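Can't attach files on this board, so I'm pasting raw text. These are the components:
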Amino acid sequence: MRDVLDRFVRSLAEQEQPKEAPERSQDLGTFVCWLLERRGFTLLLRSYRHEGPERRKNSGLTQLGVDIIASRRRKSGRRCLYLFVLKQGNITLEHAGAGRGSMFHDIELASRRNRDADSWFALDGTSFDEHVIVPVHNGDLDERLTGTVQQTREDLRRRGLRLWWWDAERLVRYAILPSRDASQRALSRAADSSLFPPGVRPFARAALDSLLRDEGRSFDLGAVDRLLDEVLPVDRPEQGQGPGSRLAAGQPMEALELRRRLGELALFAKMVEVECRRVADDLALPSLDTLERILCRGLEHVRRIPREKFAGHDKPLLKLLRGLVDQYVARARALRRRLEPLLEAPYGLALGGPSERIDYPLRALRLSGYLAVAGLALLDRGQPRSARRFATALDRLWKQNEAACLGPVTDDQIIEISAVLQLWRRCGMQERAVAAAHDLVLRLRWAKEFELPLPALYQHARVPMDDVDLQVLAEVHVRGWADAPPAFNDGGSTILPLALYLAHRGGVAPPSDVIDALKRPDAAVRSAPGGAAPTVRTVYLESWRPPDDAAEEWYVRELCYVGVVKVFDLADGLASMAAEFEAFNRPLPPSPAAAWGLPVVDWIAWKRFRTPPPMAIFCTL
Amino acid sequence: MSPERAGEIGARMVAFLRDALVKRVPDRDRPLSDEIRQEILDALPVRADDVAWRAGIAAIAAPVAQSFAPEPERWERVVDLVSIYFHHVRTTAAHPRADAGTVTGPNGIVARTTRLDLAPAILRGLLQARPGQRAGFFERMETWNALRATTAILGELDLDVREAFALIHRIDTFRPNDLAVAEPLNAARAWVTAHPEVGREIVEAWLRKEPWTEGLKVSAVQILVEGVVHAGQEHVAWRNSVLQRLALEPDDRLWALAVWLACFAWPEPLPPARIRHDALLQEVRRLPHRLVGDGLGALARDAREHPEESVATMVRLLEMAREHDRANLEAYQQRAVQVAAVAWRAVAGARKGGRATPDVRPLVPFLVAVPVAAARWDLDQLLDEMSALDEALAQELVALWIAEHVQDLHEQHLLFDDAFPTLAHRLSPDGVARWLLGLLVYQDGRARRAAAGFLSRMRAVKLPQGALESLSANEIDALAHELFGNGVAPEVLVPLLFGIAEQRPDRMDIVKTILIEDVAEDYPAACRRAALAAPKEGAPSPLDGLRRELLDQLEKADALYTQARSTPELLALRLARRPWHEVQNRVFQEAEREARSSGRYPLMTLVPRVPVPRGEATAPEAPGAEPTRFGHYSGTIELPRRELIDPLTFRYHRMRHRSRAEELLARKEPAS
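---
Top answer:
Structure tokens for the assembled complex are below.
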């Protein structure tokens, strides 16, 4: 929490200039006001003021260098008036002059304020016992200025004034503490949505409060999405109508503003984690899903800003994104540790409910997806040993839960399967990936043989899952494949060609009867019992290649009706099909995430928006 | 009995009947009729012979008949009421005319029944008093009591052509397909035999299509012709002319009549069956595919008395329609039902009459085709008879039949007792289990599957002692594989496997492997129940080790499952629970609608598809009402766990066990 809060505090501007601030945008002034209230101060003058129904910033010569005035009774009973002087960023030697607008200039102005006039803030008209000037800045103090500060403190003391100095570190330390009256726990122990601006607060509160329901199992990801739309709106209207329409380019945000907003979202993600620990038995899923959403939205906005417009904020932004990825990895690691005892026996991830035919594969593959993405993130960060731990855990998870991991219920679970296979490949467990691909082919073939439903083409394993999709899947799995509703279609598979390709390239080709069975998709004709019409079950081997500019959209939505689909034929044998697979799936240009050194965000985006990854990734390595 | 006393009782009866004709009042009528019946019994001579007894009855009946004779529209009602209220008397005393049977009343008093037979006597009086009303009475006759009374006095009646026509027509149409009409029909046939000229006249008029014979059915004509020809050799020529004329008619129903007449319209005593059957075959040849069914019907009537000849003739008949039947499944199944009927009667007749058992092997293809819905009648009776004569043959026939109908048996969820109730009763539950276990090592996989289905649907099966004695080691292994491979219900499967291990310790390894690797995975609760079942006191059982090993594995699985249930990520990812239950409820509703129309086992039809929720109880139907506890009917339902979480492996493993059984059964090995 400390790191996240530190990044957030350092990203704040002294005062947000847009008109809707501070309603919707946090700035240093509003943050300090929040902090002071939390610390038991009585605010007498805020960094903004009301003028009719409108809130406005407080500025001008009458301010006399002071942005916030507050009072507090000390433990000794003495009444103290605090004059806060706010500056953004670091206070360096270059900014230490007495020029107008500098910190030391404003301290001097504050020290000259009329104390009698200031006593008017006490409604009983009595003067305060002590006056403290508090310079506040959300950065670091240049070490070379330590002496200057000490000298200023001595000067002020001689004039009956005291000087405190709050830099970013101190702000974070104070913010993280429990509230002075103990009505609020420490931020590291409990979330506090009042930290967010009033316009954003309801969305954050809705999401955080939903963790209280059902021990976090009913976490409202819709509220998270609404919060994201409020803080970092996509603002990319659709161009054109109907299938294949694309999105407009989208306006770039100011780098600093993006940094502040992303910091706010990172803080929210941390709050979700903290709340999960407090009320939801440390459930990892809400944090992981929230982080996935934030990372996708964050990268979408980072992507829009031209390199030359970052104005030095590119590194903090990258740090923010990496922080989010690190948090993701940490949560995934906690998840892995929790799952490890269950990986000792078969069906360890299965529960006994009747809906397990659907839930078990959804659950196992979704958990596999988190672990695989975390492993891939660690590989990107150059931590192969840690990544290997994830790969090994996944190895055991897939071995003990083969029925679920090799029995996807929707075709778009190729995303999780691909992530796991790719992790194994990159961790030097090529044989494991090949064996899994081989077993996957066999299981899909037997599922077809036993007239069990194959992965559904038109239903998706979204997070959260669509109710209609779940209804359709339930219909199919309760009533059986023969009585499937029209909305269900398993006549094609993108998983099968990938598995066939990997198995072939790995030198473990499936048995010839399997290949023969798949050669002619319409060969499996069965006569139904009771004299009903015979059923023909076709399964076409398909592969989808996204368009070259797919990365411009895959951080914000699922790619539909774009790209190219190819149907493979096994008539000329598996080798020919593999060659076709390679030729068709040509590599895409590097994505923005890869350019920022965070290619794992692409995996997260594919998972989040159910866009199958480009199969070209399996044609290399 | 003095005439005065008879008149007195008759008057009381008349008064009683007149009141009852207006309205029957049980509280009034029952004690009064009891009183009058006792009076009648007291008035009749106790130790009288038949003549004196009948005279006494006639004397009492006379005033009643005299009183109601002018009201012919009430005759039937009077006869009916007399039959209801004055049919018999119950007395504690040992009456010389009492029936042999006794009835024990609620107070423990043993009573006997003495029949009075007043209704025929009164009807006789009525018909004699107003002969002109007889035809009308016969035409209007509706009640069984009137028909029985008429049957009783039919031999005494001297009916003219119209009266005989009315009576025979009425008897023939009285209650179609009711066996109780057989006695009146036989009486009518006997009356025609006594009055052949009347019968001939009716038949001739019918053949001439005279208007007054309109509506006479061929079955009535059959009675008339049979009755006439039974009277003597002189009527054979007439019968032949009737057959010729029937053959010329453009109506296949009349040709069918000719088939029946060719078989049964012969002078008494009937000639040998072979001669009659030859005549039948000759008539059938006219249009075999249409008339074979009637030929089989005629043979069914003849089969008890002439079993061997009937079966031999049946084989010849079936040969005539073979080509037609082969192309028409429905006709073939109907034929199969008739074949079963003839075969049953033939075998039963042979057994009871001490004759040689006819060879039914040539009929097996037909018997196997008897549809499931019809098996519980004639085929069941046939198997019951055959099991008494040759159990192996009967078992073989059952195996062939269940193999043929395995799909229907599964879909209809039939018990062995439903398909073959009489046979099951003869065998007793132990015998049924023994048969079914034997069928589980039969060569045909379909028969094994069907037998497993029957076993599965038995609520509890204990392995009968010595049931495995006749099986080789391979067959016992195959039996164990089949039991699991065919999805026998756990409450049957697990005790049977334990039983196998107990009775044949040399097969312990295979039983243990199946139990540990598969059964415990699918049915942990049933395994736990069986493993915890108290072993017999005394020396250590060979099953002790198996029980321990099983319990260890179940405990490990429990611990893992408990941990899984406490992992929040797993609990959070049960996304399809609600939609699953919604679909499941829809399936329940559909099944309920289906059950309303088609009937039986509404819950059982759901079992293969939908798990029954387990819990404490259902909600009570009304506030304060007793809830139905699930335990009453869901205790036997444990759905295989792997079918829920891994249907593919579940099916694959079953298939593998069945294949293994197939391999083992294909090996030839001498019985142990």
